[in-house]
Amino acid sequence: MPRILALLLLFLGLPAQAAFVTVDCLNNAHLNALGIPFTECQALEAFWDATGGPNWKSSNNWDSLNDINSWEGLTSTGGHVTAIALPFNDLSGMVPDSISQMIYLQQLDLSLNDLAGNLPQGLFDLTTLRVMDFSSNQQITGLPANLGSASGLQ
Question: What is the pLDDT of residues 108-118, one digit of tens each?
Fold first, then answer.
């Protein structure tokens, strides 16, 4: 925990262990610190919740206001999330529909996890998506009829 934050909490009479930073997408200061749009922040928040974020093997900086590029498995370019690469990281649950709000996403590597269920329909409408890997998960289903429109996938 940063020392200044701990001292501030002590000054305010709060216990130091309460110094867990939680990203608040509705807070403009948080969005400015992260450097991404509100919709992408909300999509990451939903992704964290839906895939068991607190139980991931590694989730460095997902609870911080550091630049989004310092978050485990994320890459941003030009103020937008362009890659999510969290292979072999104990993700579980289902990929939320909100992932399709990441309209600049180019790479989505969620291989070697414990994900299951239908893939979001909107995922295949992302025209920038080039690489998508869900190999070695539980049963991933729901390949949509619009799979053919995902012409950018390699």
Answer: 999 999 999 98
CB 76, CB 69: distance < 8 Å: yes
Tally of CB atoms within 10 A around 67: 14
The strand ranges marked E within 6-116 are: 74-77, 80-85, 92-93, 107-109, 114-115
Low-confidence ranges of the chain (pLDDT < 50): 1-11, 13-20
Q: Residue 146's pLDDT is what? A: 62
Count Cβ atoms below 10 Å from residue 49 Cβ, excluding itself: 13
Note the pTM of the prediction, 2 decimals.
Answer: 0.83
Which single residue is written with the structure tokens 């937008």? Answer: 80
Locate 76 and state its tokens.
Answer: 């941003």
Which pLDDT score is estimated for 8?
Answer: 42
The closest of 143, 41, 125, 132 to 86, measured between CA atoms, is 132
pLDDT at position 105, please?
Answer: 97
DSSP-derived 3-state class of residue 14:
coil
Which residues is 118 bridged to in the sheet? 141
CA 49 – CA 35 distance, rounded (Å): 21
The total of other beta-carbon atoms located within 10 Å of residue 149's CB is: 11
Q: How far is CA 125 from CA 31, 53, 86, in A?
A: 26, 25, 21
Please name the residue that has the structure tokens 């948080």: 30
